[in-house]
């Protein structure tokens, strides 16, 4: 069996916030195979964006400290010189961002911006690059692409801008697409179109996709695996069906419970997770979730507060893991949580 | 349509300037005739001069003649002979015996050469230094750059100019030669003025560019540029500078207009016969037609530059629509 296309091992990202170094990501590990999609889910500040920026070395090099290993297509990306890394950005791996309007240069035409991405990695003429750009615009569903290539971003809607971003990301046929909350800033109806487009292009190009989101609905639709992050750590990780079908971490339960239900009684109450994520400036010896967790009393002694749980295997062939001290979290979910979810 | 509207309002501003400055200068308690006549002068001689300059006629009539001169030209009695001054006639200088338009035509290229040459210096130095400092924000180099610009800006301009004039003896002697006659002499004769006006203004432009660039370096679209594999240089100079130029260009357009009408220190210190020197001399000698001419040129330049900046805006920022 060959190695997965993306192999992240023990990734730790630290950067300064208000004068002290914050551990935004701690010991994160995951794999993504070609043709498959990994969802990274978590609240704002959980480290999901910080970890994905680290994959392409997009953090400020002078100020941040990144350790661990990121292998993409067999090459180690952590510690790769900037000159070399640049040739992989937008080429081996491309990225799209949360706010498509703000992510496109307001003074340059979309055709120029896409063609530029192509020309940065191909020796070719402006005209040929432009033709590629127009072709890509058509493939992401922009009507009349030859004419629209000459328009500026403000002449497109938000959803159309995200299509442009996707065209720009995929113009070099990258084997990895990192989508950082690609639908958060968009209307609900447009969200589905954009996700469908990403999934369709993934199948067409056979690339690996890392989809960062805080929306569990997105996860079930287009992803194969899911990784739940909390306070910079992976707390639950595995195949979507297994993780969302029988989640084994109280934080994942909380995420499921806080989803509004359409099938439940009207006026039914939402169940938000109480409290707020821990202050990243404070060192946490125990489980990062213990302060908001309902179950520390069921764990012997004070372990939730003092000992960090391991990523223990929960089901299957070791694919589904989670970080919890509860003896049989799957049973707790089946007995207590699942009946509350309709 | 928008441009037409702007042109109409531009003409209105210039006409208003014409009326107000004429009223100010010709109604003012000045006595050009006495100034021309000198110290030992008989009242009779003063009256003669006053009459020959038409200053004894009602102001309204004088204004009518002035405007008619601009529109159609007019005749003057100079030393007993009739001289025709063709349209647009801004009158005859009381003291230099030449049409104002001729004097302006000699002075404007001098000022224009000084100001445009200096602009090349301060724009290139300022934008490059500002961008450089912004990229290294918070480092020693950035702080040193900001410190130097603040120091230079807080020294009055004429002091800077005097210091350069006194100490920069290595620079070629200041003198004005027409560009088309001898480009080399033109450049070397103006180099001291360019350097002085240029470096003094470069301080401010370094700060404007730095501020604009610091804002833009944190924009999402620069992260996009990095994510698609652009080199740091391309990210800053192609993507960053393109956006930072818009606010800088706005300030530049208005600055340029002010400098065209106010390069007087530079002209005086370096002995260059520009618009500022001409106007100041006219002011001291009550040479009202020349003074009027200087004010009118200033008004036209200001209005034109304002219009130009607005038009430039639509080129620089595609989101701006003329309405």
Topology at a glance:
The complex is a heterodimer of chains A (342) and B (323).
Chain A: E1 6-17, E2 20-32, E3 37-41, H1 48-55, E4 65-72, E5 75-76, H2 82-88, E6 93-96, H3 100-103, H4 110-119, H5 126-139, H6 145-148, H7 158-170, E7 176-180, H8 188-205, E8 208-213, H9 216-222, E9 225-230, E10 233-239, H10 240-245, H11 250-257, H12 303-306, E11 312-315, E12 320-322, H13 329-337
Parallel strand pairs in A: 3-8, 3-9, 6-7, 7-8
Antiparallel strand pairs in A: 1-2, 1-4, 4-5, 9-10, 10-12, 11-12
Chain B: H1 2-27, H2 32-37, H3 43-52, H4 59-72, E1 74-78, E2 81-85, H5 100-135, H6 140-154, H7 157-167, H8 183-217, H9 220-227, H10 232-262, H11 264-269, H12 275-284, H13 288-316
Antiparallel strand pairs in B: 1-2
Helix pairs in contact in B: 1-13, 5-6, 5-8, 5-10, 5-13, 6-8, 7-8, 8-10, 9-10, 10-13, 12-13
Brief rundown of the structure:
Chain A has 342 residues and is of the alpha/beta class. Chain A contains 13 helices and twelve strands. In chain A, helix 5 (126-139) crosses helix 7 (158-170) and helix 7 runs parallel beside helix 8.
Account of the protein in words:
The complex is a heterodimer of chains A (342) and B (323). Helix content of chain A is 33%, strand content 22%. Chain A has helices at 48-55, 82-88, 100-103, 110-119, 126-139, 145-148, 158-170, 188-205, 216-222, 240-245, 250-257, 303-306, 329-337, and strands at 6-17, 20-32, 37-41, 65-72, 75-76, 93-96, 176-180, 208-213, 225-230, 233-239, 312-315, 320-322. In chain A, the strands form two sheets. An eight-stranded mixed β-sheet of chain A has the order 6-7-8-3-9-10-12-11, sandwiched between helices. Chain A has a four-stranded antiparallel β-sheet with strand order 2-1-4-5, covered by helices on one side. In chain A, strand 7 (176-180), helix 8 (188-205) and strand 8 (208-213) form a beta-alpha-beta unit. In chain A, helix 4 (110-119) packs parallel to helix 7, helix 5 packs across helix 7 (158-170) and helix 7 runs parallel beside helix 8 (188-205). The two termini of chain A are 40 Å apart. Chain B is mainly alpha-helical and 323 residues long. The termini of chain B are close together. The mean pLDDT of chain B is 87. A two-stranded antiparallel ribbon of chain B has the order 1-2. In chain B, strand 1 (74-78) and strand 2 form a beta hairpin. The chains are: A alpha/beta (342), B mainly alpha (323). At the A-B interface, helix 2 and helix 7 of A face helix 9 and helix 10 of B.
């Amino acid at each position: 069996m060959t190695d997965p296309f993306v192999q992240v091992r023990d990734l730790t990202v630290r950067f300064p916030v208000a004068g002290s170094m914050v551990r935004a990501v701690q010991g994160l590990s995951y794999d993504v195979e070609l043709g498959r999609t990994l969802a990274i889910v978590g609240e704002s500040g959980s480290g999901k964006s910080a970890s994905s920026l680290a994959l392409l070395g997009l953090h400020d090099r002078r100020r941040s400290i990144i350790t661990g290993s990121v292998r993409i297509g067999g090459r180690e990306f952590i510690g790769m010189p900037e000159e070399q890394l640049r040739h992989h950005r937008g080429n081996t791996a491309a990225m799209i961002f949360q706010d498509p309007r703000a992510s496109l240069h307001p003074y340059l035409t979309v055709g120029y911006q896409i063609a530029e991405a192509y020309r940065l990695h191909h020796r070719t003429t402006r005209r040929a690059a432009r033709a590629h750009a127009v072709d890509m615009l058509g493939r992401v569903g922009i009507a009349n692409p030859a004419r629209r290539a000459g328009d500026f971003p403000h002449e497109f809607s938000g959803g159309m801008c995200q299509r442009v971003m996707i065209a720009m990301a995929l113009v070099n046929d990258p084997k990895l697409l990192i989508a950082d909350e690609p639908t958060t800033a968009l209307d609900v109806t447009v969200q589905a179109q954009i996700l469908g487009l990403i999934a369709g292009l993934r199948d067409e190009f056979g690339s690996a996709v890392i989809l960062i989101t805080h929306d569990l609905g997105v996860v079930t639709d287009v992803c194969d695996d899911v990784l739940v992050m909390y306070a910079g750590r992976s707390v639950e990780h595995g195949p979507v069906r297994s993780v969302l079908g029988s989640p084994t971490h109280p934080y994942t339960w909380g995420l499921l419970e806080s989803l509004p239900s359409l099938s439940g009684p009207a006026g039914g109450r939402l169940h938000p997770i109480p409290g707020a994520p821990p202050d990243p400036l404070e060192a946490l010896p125990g489980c990062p979730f213990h302060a908001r967790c309902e179950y520390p009393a069921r764990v012997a002694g004070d372990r939730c507060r003092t000992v960090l749980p391991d990523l223990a295997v929960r089901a299957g062939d070791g694919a589904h893991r989670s970080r919890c001290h509860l003896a049989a979290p799957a049973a707790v979910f089946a007995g207590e949580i699942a009946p509350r979810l309709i | 349509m928008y441009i037409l509207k702007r042109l109409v309002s531009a003409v209105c501003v210039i006409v208003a300037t014409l009326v107000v400055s004429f009223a100010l200068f010709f109604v003012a308690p000045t006595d050009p005739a006495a100034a021309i006549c000198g110290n030992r002068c008989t009242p009779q001689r003063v009256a003669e001069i006053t009459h020959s300059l038409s200053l004894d006629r009602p102001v309204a009539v004088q204004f009518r003649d002035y405007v008619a001169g601009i529109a159609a030209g007019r005749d003057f009695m100079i030393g007993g002979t009739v001289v025709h001054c063709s349209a647009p006639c801004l009158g005859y200088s009381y003291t230099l015996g030449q049409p104002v338009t001729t004097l302006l035509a000699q002075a404007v290229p001098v000022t224009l050469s000084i100001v445009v040459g200096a602009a090349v210096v301060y724009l290139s130095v300022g934008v490059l230094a500002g961008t450089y400092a912004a990229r290294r924000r918070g480092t020693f180099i950035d702080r040193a750059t900001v410190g130097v610009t603040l120091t230079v800006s807080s020294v009055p301009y004429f002091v800077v100019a005097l210091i350069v004039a006194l100490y920069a003896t290595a620079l070629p002697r200041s003198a004005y030669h027409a560009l088309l006659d001898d480009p080399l002499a033109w450049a070397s004769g103006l180099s001291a003025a360019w350097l002085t006006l240029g470096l003094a203004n470069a301080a401010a432009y370094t700060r404007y560019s730095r501020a604009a660039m610091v804002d833009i370096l944190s924009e999402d679209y620069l992260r996009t540029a990095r994510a698609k594999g652009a080199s740091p240089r391309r990210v800053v100079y192609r993507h960053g500078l393109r956006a930072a130029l818009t606010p800088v260009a706005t300030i530049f357009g208005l600055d340029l207009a002010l400098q065209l009408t106010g390069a007087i220190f530079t002209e005086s210190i370096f002995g260059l016969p520009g618009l500022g020197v001409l106007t100041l001399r006219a002011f001291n000698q009550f040479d009202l037609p020349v003074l009027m001419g200087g004010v009118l040129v200033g008004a036209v330049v200001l209005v034109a530059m304002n219009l130009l900046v607005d038009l430039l805006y639509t080129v620089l920022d595609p989101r701006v629509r003329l309405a």
